[in-house]
Write a structure and sequence with these properties.
about 110 residues; alpha+beta; 5 strands
Length: about 110
């Protein structure tokens, strides 16, 4: 990310639409953007969450609309997997459970 880059801001409140903004400063901890009220225009570099002190973040910064859509798609797929496994856990046999376990345990964060 660099100063002047266009970024995509997505509010958590669905009453508000996502919008584009420009990076105006990049510090050690925060990215500052324009087009947002001055008290709400900083985002943490570590997670791109809006910096709001002791309050909950109102929106999240993405490097592009494509990044946001990819993240949303990944999250939806993850939620579908969790739901399917939870709904069918009782009917899976031991071999199927072992296959699922083998796939999951290979991931190392």
């Amino acid at each position: 990310m660099k100063v002047g880059q266009e970024v995509y801001i997505v509010p958590y409140d669905s009453r508000y639409n996502p919008f584009y903004s420009n990076v105006i400063n990049i510090g050690k901890k925060y990215i500052t953007v324009d087009n947002i009220h001055k008290s709400k225009n900083r985002f943490r570099i570590c997670d791109y969450e809006q910096e709001c002190g002791n309050y909950s973040s109102e929106c999240k910064l993405y490097e592009s609309k494509h990044d946001y859509e990819h993240n949303l798609s990944e999250s939806n797929k993850r939620n579908k997997c969790i739901t399917e496994i939870q709904n069918k856990l009782d009917i899976l046999n031991i071999e199927q459970l072992e296959q699922i376990y083998e796939v999951i345990k290979t991931y190392k964060p």
